[in-house]
Amino acid sequence: MSVSLEFDSVAYRIGQKTLVSDISLTFPAGSVTAVIGPNGSGKSTFLKLASRLLAPSEGNIRLGGKPLKHFRQRELSQQLALLPQSAPRPLGMLIEDLVACGRHPHRSVLGRMTQHDQEMIEWALQLVSLADRRKERVDVLSGGEMQRVWLAMILAQDTPMILLDEPTSYLDLSHQFELLELVQDINHQLNKSIVWILHDINQALQFSHQILLMRQGAPAFFGNPEHLLELPILNDTFQLQTTRVELPDGNTYLHCRSRTSRRQHQLNHCRKPSLEEVNCD
Question: The whole model's pTM is what?
């Protein structure tokens, strides 16, 4: 099961400052979309609007054709899950108890856990390879392990739309690709719609059906990754020099270098003071 996400002329302002504007996009049901862009380009604001953490100053957002503002909170939590970039760690809580929080939107009025709830929690723990550590407290986990617990909670929530804000943060390379491949499998096998913010351009290209490139609070590109590689806008947005490398498996890798050579410029023009020049009086 999957749902589409539509933005219709959406803008968001704080006072006189516009953080995002001119967003009119449709994320098709069952697709994986990577949101990329420089720091401060509006990526996190976009995801907060998509999850209703923020209300748009202008325009409308629809989930599965229904305006986001018309959902009751419980209903919305059954349709959409968000893994934020950072969340406070609930000290003293067991791994399995935190993952079980993902089932709250599906519980009855009495809040009792059903057999299906238990099975969903077990399934989520198995997927992130934490089933044998379920009784450990989250206090003792590393940042990467904690990220996997949060992901398990999102998976246990079992929504057709999943929003992920930099899900590879705090993960070493091995666990980064493990998570990326897991999300890709969830999309392929369960047909869930995924929108995630990724900082690594090559990971975004490899694991996503389409790319949204944000620049100065507005979409600069939205479409197929292959099409993005044919345009200069990627290099211009990130101030990069890229070389496209075709891999044997059919994927494309971008070798990236800074366009500005800032470090070399600084070293050439900033002379290191000698000890004799330092006045110690």
Answer: 0.87
